[in-house]
Design a protein that fits this description.
The structure holds two protein chains of two kinds. By secondary structure, chain A is of the alpha/beta class. Chain A has one domain: TIM Barrel, CATH 3.20.20.150. Chain A contains nine helices and twelve strands. In chain A, the strands form three sheets. An eight-stranded parallel β-barrel of chain A has the order 1-2-3-4-7-8-9-12. The N terminus of chain A is likely disordered. In chain B, helix 2 crosses helix 4, helix 3 runs antiparallel to helix 7 and helix 7 packs across helix 8. Chain B is elongated. The model of chain B has no long low-confidence stretch (mean pLDDT 93). The N and C termini of chain B lie far apart (66 Å). In chain B, strand 3 and strand 4 form a beta hairpin. A three-stranded antiparallel beta sheet of chain B has the order 2-3-4. In chain B, strands 1-5 form a two-stranded antiparallel ribbon. Chain B folds into two domains: 93 residues, no CATH class; 127 residues, no CATH class. Classes of the chains: A alpha/beta, B alpha+beta. Chains A and B meet through helix 3, strand 5, strand 6 and helix 4 of A and helix 1 and helix 2 of B.
């Protein structure tokens, strides 16, 4: 069972007012030619599990000058099945190579047995927020932290299906995970907004604010911002990271910063990629939003 | 339904075993995973896709996904069994070379992700007068194989957006008509995997070198005097196929 808070050292953190973007293969040439003007780069861990090759070499070169945040998409921390040893071994090898500022994955399941054989679902699959889910998620987070010898952060996901029974709301579930494992959190603002919209809540902005207010702020290690796309005559909003952060996302981000203070912030853009310049432009917007909040805080400090 | 059953059933739904897991919007996940599976195979098997076209390739990829399913967390691992699986698929009746083409795509990707060794030029000083006491070192990252189809030409032709306009396409067509195949060497140039047809003599030599014999055993005692051999060795070194020499103790 979890609660190993004393055994999972966190890495030295980035300053809270830092901004990063995701590094995807389309932009390898850009980052090799010019040092990125962002504070850190995020990569999807599994894309660098290979022994060698272009991705591994690029990451090695880039990580020498720019801090890297390793973001997994496949561990399936909420799976009833334990994360396979082979997965943890490959992740550990990557962590040792890159020495990232943060290692993270999602609160979802991916692994399950069918007819006794272990399979991987290939997506961020939702879990109900029950005591049973909590136990398995805490075990897997614990297992990963022990395997890596360091703290990880866990991100809230979009869930397009609803469960009949939950013992917790999502924020309370995440807080309980933090309490049991000593892990950190990634607050994905877009995911909260998408869930609010898809659940047809009356006021999505209020929903986001209440959600953030309920979270353990001290555990939030990174904020994620992204765009999403409506499908099926706008019946559902899909978190596809295929467009800019919407205005509502920037407004929510501003409110979150005012509530919890600046945090390292990642602009996620995975599909329909823009130019490297445009992507960095999104990072600049986030940096400006952080400065606005910091300036406001300073102007209210007693002299 | 307990948590374990829910997770198993949901995966069974994603793989097409169950029509409806009883949860609204589940299709969002099924469509998403299927799209990722197709994308992963497109990335790993570009020549197969170019040969079949997007629609037939998608159908084939989804057949594979539903039968084999996903067993690893890394999408780039997905599809390693695709070449041998294709043999039993009905598509091989009309394109019997498809499995070998997939195998070549797979090897190119594998070589690109391998620990491809650098040439240790100094080590060639180990080649002395007694060729029975030293051997050549083959790059452990490279691949080579024989095919009864002209797959190197098919592979080369389909790197073009208009394969029919290439000489390689014409050559492949001619060779298929005559029932002739090719031996293929897959190596790396920079980060890129390359494939080229090699002679029966060359592939036999590479096979022999893989067994780590002495130079004398592999090529004969007087080989260093042969211009053909030195030219061949230089070519193999320039492609990092042979990466050094070592004394046999």
């Amino acid at each position: 069972m979890g609660n190993r808070q004393d055994n999972v050292p966190a890495k030295p953190e980035l300053a809270s007012s830092t901004v990063g973007v995701g590094l995807r293969p389309d932009h390898y040439q850009d980052v090799l030619e010019h040092t990125p003007s962002v504070d850190f780069l995020e990569v999807h861990s599994e894309n660098f599990f290979a022994e060698a090759g272009i991705a591994v070499d690029v990451l090695k070169e880039v990580s020498a000058s720019t801090p890297i945040s390793l973001h997994g998409t496949s561990a399936g921390l909420g799976s009833v099945e334990a994360i396979p040893d082979d997965y943890l071994k490959r992740l550990k090898r990557l962590v040792d190579r890159v020495d990232p500022i943060l290692v993270s994955d999602h609160l979802c399941f991916t692994w399950a047995r069918i007819g006794g054989r272990l399979f991987h679902g290939g997506d961020l699959l939702p879990i109900p927020y029950t005591e049973d889910s909590l136990r398995h998620a805490a075990n897997n987070i614990d297992r990963m932290q022990q395997a890596l010898g360091r703290q990880i952060a866990v991100e809230n996901v979009c869930a397009y299906i609803e469960f009949d029974h939950n013992d917790f709301d999502e924020a309370a579930f995440l807080n309980e995970i933090v309490a049991r494992t000593g892990c950190g959190l990634i607050l994905d603002i877009n995911n909260v907004m998408v869930n609010a919209r898809n659940a047809r809540v009356g006021d999505p902005a209020d929903f986001v604010d209440d959600y953030v207010a309920s979270l353990d702020h001290s555990a939030i290690a990174e904020i994620h911002l992204a765009g999403s796309t409506p499908v099926d005559r706008e019946e559902l909003l899909i978190d596809d990271h295929a467009c800019p952060v919407p205005e509502a996302g920037w407004h929510a981000y501003g409110r979150v910063l005012r509530k919890i203070g600046p945090r390292p912030t990642l602009i996620e853009w995975d599909n329909n990629l823009p130019s490297w310049r445009e992507l960095q432009g999104e990072a600049i917007k986030a940096r400006k939003a952080q400065r606005r909040v910091l300036n406001r805080e300073r102007s209210h400090e007693p002299v | 339904m307990n948590l374990s059953e829910y997770q198993s059933q949901f995966l069974a739904f994603l793989f097409g075993d169950i029509k409806n897991p009883g949860l609204p919007n589940s299709d969002v996940y099924r469509f998403g995973v299927e799209a990722k599976a197709v994308r992963a195979l497109e990335h790993s098997y570009p020549t197969v896709k170019a040969l079949l076209g997007p629609s037939a390739f998608e159908e084939l990829a989804l057949d594979y996904f539903r039968v084999i399913r996903k067993q690893s967390g890394d999408w780039s691992d997905f599809g390693w069994g695709f070449p041998s699986w294709i043999i039993s698929h009905r598509i091989s009746d009309r394109a019997p070379y498809l499995s070998d083409v997939a195998r070549l795509d797979n090897y190119v990707g594998r070589v690109e992700r391998s620990q491809y060794q650098e040439v240790d030029f100094q080590s060639f000083s180990a080649i002395g007068e007694d060729l029975s006491t030293c051997r050549l070192i083959l790059n452990s990252g490279l691949e080579f194989f024989r095919s009864v189809y002209p797959i190197a030409s098919i592979w080369e032709a389909h790197k073009s957006h208009t394969p029919q306009d290439t000489l390689s396409f014409a050559q492949a067509k001619r060779m298929i008509a005559k029932g002739r195949g090719q031996n293929v060497l897959v190596y790396r140039s920079g980060w890129r995997g390359m494939a080229e047809a090699i002679s029966e003599k060359d592939i036999a030599l590479l096979e022999r070198l893989r067994k780590q014999p002495s130079i004398a055993e592999a090529f004969g005692e007087g080989v260093l005097d042969e211009t053909n051999f030195t030219g061949w060795l230089q070519d193999m070194i320039s492609k990092r196929v042979i990466v050094g020499a070592r004394t046999i103790h």
